[in-house]
Amino acid sequence: MAKCLTKLLSRRPSSRLSELYITVQPHTFRRYLMRNVLGVGVSQDKKPEELKKPTLRFIQFLRGNDERKRLGVVSEDGNTFAELSGGACVSNDFLAFLKQGFSSQELLHKIDRVQCERMNDRLILLPPIINPGKIICVGLNYKGHCDEQNKQPPTDPVFFSKFSNALVGPLDCVVAHSVTKRLDWEVELAVVMSRKCRHVTCKDAMNYVFGYTIAQDISARDWQKRNGGQFFIGKSMDTFCPIGPAVVHRSMIGDPHNLYLKCTVNGEEKQNGNTREMIFRIDELISRLSSFLTLLPGDLILTGTPKGVGMYLKPPQYLKVGDVIQSEIQCVGKMINQVIAP
């Protein structure tokens, strides 16, 4: 992320990107970016005594030059955080933390007992899940995305996968690998599984969800169409799956099937949809998958993308070096990822 932030900080402010590239000192800009992605629409101008407490919004992070990975929670406005892995008998790794099996009430009690800190420029956000066992994606799961391809909605979910080498954090860079000339965007709501799951019904499926995060399903469209139509190479190149900024506990999300999701490139809106447009809802996706394979704690399910991907615009549009992708989902937060050369 340091490399990406250096590039962001070296760019001159643009009128099209005035909301993102503001003329401030580098350390202030880093803090602005952190609050911008972690906050969910709450004012950033509160007085210190009015700062919100951290809640069930989980992040993985580093402190400055310390390479020890840490687990923490942040407030809804992104202004405060607390480290859970520093003394609350909580693992410093999110996946191991899930396996500890804490209830939401136990977690809230632990959060009340740890020291809160103001967000600062020494924090480096990592992907909230670094080593999931599976990254399962769902294609053609929004009617608008089917319509823009002139395809009928599928009668069964279209599943494919990414590998964990594709994961990067919410402020990390996306590499425009030299082997592709058709780099595309897809903002998606990602489901994070809480526990082992096999042969569950739709009625019980949501009980196996820990929470939600944002995923940007970066795609090399030229390679997606090659290899006999196999998506694997076109979807799993390094840096092709930014996720974050936090994993938001399901109790913090009223209805996961009524969240707006947006994607902009260089400040220009490309996608603007709502999760209610899903063809196959989350409970059905989990139930279907669990009938074939065992889902485990920390497994990610990317639930599909709304219309507006670059490939199907007229004329088609693709990402290029220097472009900035902003992905946003209501109640979850934002990600800001810049495209860089290899």
Description:
It comes from Glossina pallidipes. Belongs to the FAH family. There is one protein chain. The protein has 342 residues and is α+β, with helices and mostly antiparallel strands. It folds into two domains: 85 residues, no CATH class; 206 residues, Alpha-Beta Complex (Fumarylacetoacetate hydrolase, domain 2). Helices cover 19% and strands 29% of the residues. It contains nine helices and 19 strands. Strand 18 and strand 19 form a beta hairpin. The radius of gyration is 19 Å and the shape is globular. About 6% of the residues have low confidence.
Architecture (CATH level 2) name of the largest domain: Alpha-Beta Complex
Pattern of helices and strands: HHEEEHHEEEHEEEEEHEEHHEEEHEEE
Q: Write down the overall geometry.
A: globular
CATH homolog superfamily of the largest domain: Fumarylacetoacetase-like, C-terminal domain
Keywords: Metal-binding
GO molecular function: metal ion binding; oxaloacetate tautomerase activity
Organism: Glossina pallidipes
InterPro entries: FAH, Fumarylacetoacetase-like_C, Fumarylacetoacetase_C_sf
